[in-house]
Model the fold of this input.
Amino acid sequence: MVVKLVECDALEITTLVDNQIDALLPGEESVRRHPWGAAIRNPFIDAPAVRSSLVAEHGFSALVTAIAGGNRHTILFDAGVSPTGMIANMDQLEVAAKDIEAMVLSHGHFDHTGGIEGLVERLGRVSMPMILHPAAYTQRRAAVPGGEPTPLPPPSRSALEGAGFELVEAADPSVLFNDLLLVTGEVARTTPFENGFPFFEREVNGRWEQEVHLPDDQALVANVRGKGLVVLSGCGHAGIVNIVRHAVAITGEQRVHAILGGFHLTGTFFEPSIAPTTAAFREFAPNVIVPAHCTGYKPQMALAQAFPDTYVHNAVGTTYFL
Done:
């Protein structure tokens, strides 16, 4: 299946939720930093007012605006982990929830869906499509040997429908705004080194069974005029190299301009994948690399060293002009 994307004139991606906030990170023309919120009064600080900070949490959410022919289309990609984190940062950044036209879920883990509650409270009854894989509702847990299983609860279909979302459940690729944005759907596993998660389990007929690969893991893709593909991943459970290769295969566009989001390379199990991932990124030759959320400290440092001119350190409140 090949999806011919309409080229964007420009693409803007703002990090609403991520694991870190850093008010001292430098920006540049194409990377704007907005770490501070509105001035607040604190009786324990001897000043009329002090600036408030945005909030970091273990989760991910991004606001994506595609610009083409003078028109702007905005979607929400994931929603963070807490009911309040994403919406609080939206308020600080003066992002109007009513301007969001659609929502995309990268997968069904709770650290990407928790902020939906705050969005619904803000909007009242929601009237927008939500694109997600049918397997996003799967009950899951992480059962690491030697430890207690950690629940990974999914979103509630009935609650989403009750809030007014138009659920678009698709394993195949989906497009938004007349072929301007692409949701990859289920990603083909093709690399020999992105081997999934042997400690993940899913519930089937009341019993837990191993689920090495999360079929619902999907990414968002745009094609920026004169630059190439921008690929935005939530966690990269499908393997970030698999994801980018899949985006290239289904769009037919060979140029990769930017790779952003969670790459999930953290922890001892995934460290062997750092070197081949870095090598694959050299083949992609992106102009912008932005690891976020679950990528991990060691992989981030490896990518920063390998790509000093293209690596950008992410933080809540950063807007990328792509």
Summary: The chain has a mean pLDDT of 96. The chain has six helices and 20 strands. Residues 240-251 form the longest helix (12 residues).
